[in-house]
Amino acid sequence: MKKYLLSFAVLSLFYTKSDACAWADPDYDYFNLFTQTIIKDKSYLPFLHSYSTRFYTDYSPSLLAQIRDENIEAWRKYFNNQLSYSETLFLVNKMSMNDLNELKKGNPNNQLLKKLGTGFYTKYTEGIDYLIEAKYLEPYMKINYIESSDSFYYRENENDKNATHLDYNKTIAALTSLYNAAKNPEIKQRYGFQLVRFNHYTRNYDAAAQAFKAYVAPIKLKGAPYIMALDQLAGAQRGMDMNSEANWNFFQVFKDSKSRKESAFVSMQLSDTASFNNILKRANTNDEKNMAYFLLGYQDFTNPIPLMEKMYDINPDSEILKVMAARSINEIERSYLPTYYYASTENGTVVKNSTQNNSDKTNTETAEPKKEELSFWQKIVRFFKNLFGGSKSKGETGSKADQSDDELLDNPNRIPVYSKNNSYYWSENDQQKDFLDDLQKFASKTKEKSKDEYWQIADAYLMFLKKDYKASTEILEDIKTTNPEYLEEIKRMKVLNDIVSQPKIDAKYEDHLMKDYAEYFVEKSVKKDSTNQYDEYGTAPSTADFLKDVLANRYFLQGEDGKSYLMNNKLSDLQYNPNSSLVKSVEEFYRKPNKTQFEQQIISKNMDNVGNVDAFFSVIYGDRAMRTADFAKAKSYYEKAQTFAGIPRENYERYNPLTGNYEKLVYDGKNYDGFHNISNLIFGHNTWESFESPQDQSMKAEDYSLFPFIKPNMNKLELANALVQLKQIGNGKDEKSAKANQLIGNVLYNTSVLGYFRQVFVMDVDNSNGGKYDFWRTDRKNPYQYYYKNFLDTTYIEPDNFDLSINYYQKALNTSNNKEEKARILFQMASAEQGKYYQYEAKNPANIDYSDPKWSEKNAAHDLQMTTTKHEKYKTYFAILKNQYSDTETAKGLMGSCIYFEYFMKK
Predict the structure, then answer these.
(1) Are the C-beta atoms of 830 and 905 separated by less than 8 Å?
(2) Which of 155-164, 336-345, 758-767, 886-895 has the highest mean pLDDT?
(3) Cα–Cα distance, 496 to 513 (Å, whole number)
């Protein structure tokens, strides 16, 4: 695990309970394969599903450009479409008042106005005069802020203009006069809007309401000026505590406006059921009822199907119903297609962005997916294939590579897989439901009624999640559309169905991937979206990322671990979890002759720079051999690793206490690089336990005078050679052989998870804490269930075997006649035995739910049981040391330097 990563336990805590933390973005934790934004009415884009922001357009601000402002559209129509939308937007919202005044004088300076000519003012005099007046008022059109004793912000130095800075009587008189003089009904209504807004922002709420009745409502137009005035009326009604009326009018703005839906929704303040019911009671038209049901579904999204059924009964072709469907599909997709599958460090089981369920056995919810529905003919074919193909029973062990297509297709771990409790902000009191079946039935029903191909696409996608790829593809083939967004979604889904339905990824299929789908696998340079405020999280997961995960999963299930690993990781990442079996599989792929084009271009590109690759593998194998005390084997590997370039920590930084800074690691020929510069203190023993202290303070050398081959500074080959010689000497029966065995025991203990030199045989640069030094918590050789994408987040190193060091210490103890030496050896044996207890403790956590009313009693009982076990089974050598060697100078010295030993001796 990388040194700067949080440990998995801490990461899981934040992930499952505190996903709203500033550094976590839940919208980067799913693939968005069903593109929500294909809805036709883009005014609803803000209300698509997002967890990281209140509105979807906050997550992706660039989408706002797709929402047309009805006010700009109205002005464009007023100008007889003489201007484009962007030109109209510039004229209305951005052009200065001075430029318009110059046009009015017949001397336009602005390039757009020059192009339009002086006749433009003559033709649209009332409109241009209105815009001049509106631009004069606009800087003041803010409500005056009134400070209160509960105000949160300090505003003393703010001098922003607001409506109260204008002369009230003069402004009202001017706007009224302009209203009366206007001939064009739309322009007249716009002056009415200004009267309502000005009264609202000067807190003359009743006058604002009267202005709406007098100047806006009588003009029987319900276009953009009316909507804007109604928005202001609703605000004034809120100021008069007419909340029901305000909500209703904001509701009307929400329903009829395209660009003001967000603000109207926020202004509605629908915080209780009564507010919804009041709107629903007043809803007379189908559109109003549909919109009311949508708002209710938008607020409460546990299971959307009942509300969608109501909306269907009103109008199965309504656009807002498609928005609900998009949100529902998005919610389902998050549960079926998470971007990470986390392996539990407690029991080796796998969870997907979910909360661990505390129990003695794993209760992690990973519901088995529904099997693909087979036709009668398919069932017959499978029967005979199984009958004559010699397929293995589920309980029979065998090579993954020998699995039949049927076994691969039936594997419950073929993603997509549903994961309960994968939703954000989920709590144990929520009744989360997998409503995929209900949603698919709804989509299938609706596609028969609606004329929009959207529902066919939705149905096909939901069939994809149900793993009925044949039915999904058939639906897609039948869709006839010219909508470019629909066509893109259909194309993507056909690719998904093809790849995910393939039983086995073999060389022939890899050729097919490169021939037909290279665009999804060949990486392209992507420009950073400057408008996206969430760029710090990196590129959002894509279809290509999902397909990469699918293939990684398929290779994993097929037993091709090396290829599975390299789909999501770099070769150099093996340094963080140098597991021997995985390394072997990666090496087999590395040495594979005649790789396919896919293997060469897509997988092999992750064989990044580690220096000499053969030496890199040899160091890992040699290290593992050392940890298993096979010193001769380790020596043979280290002989092949002498060109090792160093552990590839190109971006690794560590704290330098001399400078007080974090500095990049540089191998200068003096510091430990994974192979060179190992002190002979690795044969010594602790003076005190401190990983942070310099080695000559934490460790003390033994007497090496009998073993001249132990050099003050060694590389791993020299270290292995020294251990080979010590092992041979240790076969004797004298004090020298006793010392040799003691030194071997020291090396094995000192390089274990408890030792000062714990980094030496686990491909680490120093002994600072990290996931490599967690005690092994599972009996599974491989803690992964799906694939290796989260490789750096899960400890995957074979556990220490403390019996190895204990056995060498025992040989030394049996041979030595020196009581002081025996006391030292017994203490080292006791320390190694502590390691065995820590491993036992890690495998036997309490797993008592905090909500259990008897948590305290159960927790106390578990602690007592663990303490009893520790003293009965894991204090053997401490007891011997206390009972037989307490009078030695060694024991007395240890009591002064080891608090725990002192405590034990005095009990």
Answers:
(1) no
(2) 758-767
(3) 12
pTM over 0.90: no
Tell which phi-psi region holds residue 80, choosing left (phi > 0), alpha (psi between -120 and 50) or beta. left
Rounded to whole angstroms, the Cα distance separating 411 from 400 reads 11
The token pair at 434 is 């997998």
Listed by start position, the domains of the chain span 678-762+800-843+875-906
Instruction: For residue range 108-133, list pLDDT tens digits in order.
Output: 999 999 999 989 999 999 999 999 99
110: Cα within 13 Å, side-chain hemisphere:
18
- Distance between CA 341 and CA 337 in Å, rounded? 10
Q: What b/e readout covers 709-747, taking b as 16+ CB neighbours within 10 angstroms?
A: ebeeebbbbbbbbbbbebbebbeeeeeebbbbbbbbbbb
DSSP state, residue 603: I
Q: Which two structure tokens, joined as six digits, stand for 429? A: 């009191």
Omega before 416 within 30 of 0, i.e. cis: yes
Q: Distance (Å, rounded) from C-alpha 167 to C-alpha 171? A: 6
Q: Do residues 551 and 786 touch, judged by C-beta distance below 8 A?
A: no
Q: Calculate helix-pair angle for 631-639, 613-627, nearest 10 degrees.
A: 170
Three-state secondary structure call for residue 340: coil
SS3 label, residue 653: strand
Question: For residue 427, what are the CA distances in angstroms to 38, 302, 432, 880?
Answer: 31, 12, 9, 52
Mode of pairing for the β-strands spanning 685-686 and 699-700: antiparallel
d(CA 570, CA 785): 20
Residue 688's pLDDT band, with cuts at 50, 70 and 90, is: confident
How much of the chain exceeds pLDDT 70, in percent?
83
Q: Can you read off the two tokens belonging to residue 90?
A: 């510039």
Rounded to whole angstroms, the Cα distance separating 810 from 741 reads 8
**Measured distance CA(355)–CA(426) in Å, rounded:** 9
CA gap 868, 329 in Å, rounded: 53
Q: How far apart are CA 443 and CA 452, in angstroms?
A: 12
Structural tokens at position 691: 């990983």
Residue 1 burial (CB count, 10 A): 22
